[in-house]
Design a protein that fits this description.
alpha/beta, TIM Barrel
Length: about 350
Amino acid sequence: MSNIEKLHEIALQLVSPHKGILAADQSPRTMNKQLEALGLPPEAELRRKYRQLMFTTPGIEEFVTGVILHDGTIRNHTDDQVQFSDLLVAKGIIPIIKVDTGTVPHHGFEGEVVTQGLDGLQDRLQEYYDMGARGAKFRTVFNISDTTPTEQNTLFDCMTLARYSALCHEVGIVPIVEPEIIFSGPHSLERAEEVTTQVLKKLFEIMSWYKVDLRGVILKSSMVLAGSEHPDQTSPKGVAEASIRTFQKTVPDTVPGIVFLSGGQTPQRATENLDALAEQEEQMGGLPWELAFSFSRGIEQPVQQAWMGKDENIPAAQEALLKRLRLNSMADQGTYDPSMEA
């Protein structure tokens, strides 16, 4: 099998039906904030223990194809000194590494940011490949207002995602491109759809222009919905219709899959919207891409609340994780019902 055929195979594995990608790639700073919100000290050992309870959960591989890791997490290990990436591979789960280094203000473009992380990326990717990573993720951020995102900001970030994707392919890693449209704000569903369409259209235009093989790329997308502060919150059916309509206009059929971020939605709302997407897909007789979930807080919030930093709570936390994954797997099949949350 050639290297490019291997990339295609890995991409398809990552979007296997009825499974998702767990986003466990919070930075130490973000993870510390989550620990402090639970009343826990922001310590490296607590961060390690939390990741360990997630990755050692029995049966997680039934619902998860890959796990996105932060640099500090892929280098970390279990109590028995087994590297987390090796633990995941042994379960048949693909380690994925977050490689962007965060956003900085875009000078001269008020209210906009650009993502850093291309410097030295080829060497970093090779190191991560040697540590077992076969997927990577790079996130860019688009804030919605009356004047943003600008054409210049969109073009800059899309070129960054294209270059990142090409570098991933050079070392045998499947790139996940994440152009996140920020949920927070007063914007309408129509404005969200307009911006998401604008960004995705430019992204795939640039990716194709730079000759990125889209059969070896996964799109991680926001769901299309009104902003968190808009008075008319979008129904699950409205989210499904707007999202699929947007993808049909922008995402080439050669892309194997689209995975959704929860983007600040509550765990239940994210699952309800995922279920509506699956129902809409079934009504349409199928779509060119596999749709799946790639939630972080949309899965982990109840896990953290069950754990509370106590070893005796690990079984309850692992059960909370399995429950959330199971519900999202059912939503991916269009068989979820809110009554299952009880």
